[in-house]
């Protein structure tokens, strides 16, 4: 295992982080990323990884890679995807970068983890590293100010003709299986919050619905987009309330749909305080109590199954041209 930290390592691990409203956040380039990096967030990342694995039938990516040798994972978090990738491709060199050194169980001989900021100028070529076969991005909504620049830097560091970028994001636009009567839904309130907060942050939360075009505009070829439905209603074995509703064969009552729903509800349960606590108090003028009350209302809606809302997970990949 090789762990490289590009910042000055302080003697006390507590000094490497900051605390705000009882949650822990990164201090390197403080404020660049809105999310916490504590154990509660680690649980959320674990749930997210399981949800994505379920949707992809345990695949780690959709891009048609041919024996990848050099892989970059941006925003690696606790390192679940990178460790799985290192195990799946033992002859490949896997590099994961993040603003926080919070990775779990990174002991792989072909895995390298670094504290770095993907929004800075990439210097991998200057450091003598080979071009990447694969650049992987997942769940960076609300985190990047200039997506075209990030995609351009990825393009320049991929192997001509063979290197792929792939990005997986949750579309935060709520969809409803039944028409009308959703104006008062707490999930519409979430959409409005992310919309208004993104404007104040200067970082859109809705990259999932634009990334195919942006990746294509950056110069990638063979751009492919795949969408997976993530329902939030139902999820109980004895739930038949929506058997008569269909939406791409996923708004009916099936064992697979129920399992996806259960994990997607856990995605919300474990993640929503982290999504809103810092963003609402830093940018929207909320108090921490207001943010937690909003989380409570959402939790009640999830528990009561009050809405027929679903979301989409979007995966886009593209290949760098030969020239």
UniProtKB/TrEMBL annotation:
Q: Which InterPro entries match?
A: SAM-dependent_MTases_sf
Entry-linked Pfam families: Methyltransf_23 (PF13489)
The record's GO molecular-function terms, alphabetically, read: methyltransferase activity
Q: What is this protein called?
A: Methyltransferase domain-containing protein
Give the species this sequence originates from. Answer: Talaromyces rugulosus (Penicillium rugulosum)
């Amino acid at each position: 295992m090789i762990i490289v930290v590009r910042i000055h390592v302080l003697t006390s691990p507590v000094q490497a982080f900051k605390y705000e409203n009882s949650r822990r956040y990164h201090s390197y380039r403080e404020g660049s990323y809105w999310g916490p990096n504590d154990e509660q967030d680690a649980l959320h990342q674990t749930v997210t990884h399981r949800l994505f694995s379920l949707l992809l039938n345990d695949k780690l990516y959709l891009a048609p890679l041919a024996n990848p040798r050099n892989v970059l994972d941006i925003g690696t978090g606790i390192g679940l995807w990178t460790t799985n990738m290192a195990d799946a491709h033992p002859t490949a060199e896997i590099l994961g970068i993040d603003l926080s050194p919070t990775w779990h169980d990174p002991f792989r001989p072909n895995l390298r983890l670094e504290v770095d900021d993907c929004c800075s100028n990439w210097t991998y070529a200057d450091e003598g590293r080979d071009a990447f076969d694969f650049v992987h991005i997942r769940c960076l909504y609300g985190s990047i100010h200039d997506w075209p620049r990030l995609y351009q830097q990825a393009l320049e560091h991929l192997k001509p003709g063979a290197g792929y970028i792939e990005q997986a994001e949750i579309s935060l636009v709520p969809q409803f299986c039944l028409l009308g009567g959703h104006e008062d839904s707490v999930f519409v309130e979430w959409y409005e919050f992310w919309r208004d907060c993104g404007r104040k942050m200067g970082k859109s939360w809705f990259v999932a619905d634009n990334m195919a075009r942006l990746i294509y505009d950056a110069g990638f070829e063979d751009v492919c987009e795949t969408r997976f439905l993530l329902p939030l209603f139902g999820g109980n074995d004895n739930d038949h309330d929506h058997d008569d509703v269909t939406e791409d064969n996923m708004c009916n009552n099936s064992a697979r749909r129920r399992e996806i729903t259960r994990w997607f509800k856990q995605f919300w349960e474990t993640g929503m305080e982290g999504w809103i606590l810092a963003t609402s108090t830093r940018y929207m003028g909320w108090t921490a109590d207001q943010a937690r009350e909003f989380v409570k209302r959402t939790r009640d809606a999830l528990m009561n199954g009050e809405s027929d809302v679903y979301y989409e997970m979007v995966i886009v990949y593209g290949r760098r041209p030969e020239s």
